Amino acid sequence: MKSDNQQGGFKPQENLISILPSVVAGILMLLITTLTILFNYPPQNPASIIALILYGFLGSIYLLFYYLLFDASLNKTRFSWINAVTSGISLGGLSILIPEEIDYLLYMLVFISSMSASLMSTRAPSYFIVISSNFIHFAVHMVNHSPSQDWIIHFGLTIAELMAIETIQQLKNIARKQINRLEIVNEFSKQIVATLDTKKIFNLLNIAFQNAIAADSYYIGIVNGDLIHLEVFYDEGEYFQDIRLKRQGTLSNWVITHQQELFLPDLRKPIELEDVDTVIIGKEKTPLSWMGVPIRGLHVDGVMAISSYHANAFDRSDLELLSNIAQRAALALDNTYQHALVEEQTRLDSLTRVYNHG
Q: Fewer CB within 10 Å: N-end or C-end of the chain?
């Protein structure tokens, strides 16, 4: 479970680095808006002038403290929502002071504020900033009976703000997924280096599969003559033991023979490979997505494959992850074989090649 201090999958210092440009841009934009109104569209009411100056000054101070206090906050979710409510209402209230001729400055402020919130938290607080500020803005303009073309522009800018929030959230999800996969590969590498037990390596591979890729079925097969022995075979919630299948005509044999990765995102289409037929093992269901990578070392030859009962379930990043795991598994299995060979030699007489008396 993620801690609140690493909300969104990033460490606090990474969040502060990512938000700094938007905070600086927000302060500059707020000062530009305030000065533009004062010099080009000065309010007739002295109270409005004072309110505008206070808004620009206090808003800049708030943005600065927001940047400094976010890391110190123990509850990042609560802090994000407090910021969302404060920013949404205050930006919407600026509609009262800002002339319609420079409405675009208000939208730029909302855009920067929502981007900052999206970088630091989930989409909900960012959406609240956009919706609440624009709702107040629309209410003010409704009183002023703005022309219909202005409403179209307002609506288009609001949609653009929401699309930008979604883009940031998608990029964060991609980065989080990539970081998670790198952590899985690194953790797997550290664990297999520390063991010379073949069975334990296959257990670690099984755990890596479960954590790394969402698949309905996966297996690890080692070549044994004309057969492939499935050391690990999982299919839709069930493990199958001691499965052996003939190499000839299988997708796995193609991977082993050609020593190439094979990515088949949609098996509803014909397989354009020579001497390959679909062989169903495990559950009596036909997979619709399949990919496999070779496991090749000095003393080991095999295949690692995953499949899904849904078409287009995997992408190239999944294939890259599978290949990285297979390369490390090949090295680890080679080490266990070499270790077993050395142990065997210590038990044999160097001349007669029979077991020592001990």
A: N
Long-range Cβ pairs for the range 263-266 (8 Å, 24+) = 263/291, 263/314, 263/316, 263/319, 264/289, 264/290, 264/291, 265/289, 265/291, 265/311, 265/312, 265/313, 265/314, 265/315, 266/311, 266/312
Residue with tokens 């289409």: 269
Q: Give the number of other Cβ atoms within 10 Å of residue 68's Cβ.
A: 11
**What's the predicted TM-score (pTM) here?**
0.67
22/315 Cα distance (integer angstroms): 33
Q: What is the pLDDT of residues 80-101, one digit of tens each?
A: 898 899 999 999 988 888 887 8
- Amino acid identity of residue 52, one-letter, is L
H-helix or E-strand containing 327? helix 316-347
Mean predicted confidence (pLDDT) in 341-352: 60
pLDDT classification of 172: cutoffs 50, 70, 90: confident
For every residue of 74-102, DSSP letters joined together read S-HHHHHHHHHHHHHHHHHHGGGTS-GGG
Residue 172, both tokens: 């964060």
Of the ranges 66-80, 257-271, 301-315, which one carries the lowest mean pLDDT score?
66-80
Reported as a single tens digit per residue, the pLDDT across 24-57 is: 888 899 899 889 988 888 888 888 889 889 998 9
Q: Which amino acid is at 139?
A: A
Q: What is the DSSP letter of 270?
A: P
Q: Are 113 and 84 spatial neighbours (Cβ–Cβ below 8 Å)?
A: no
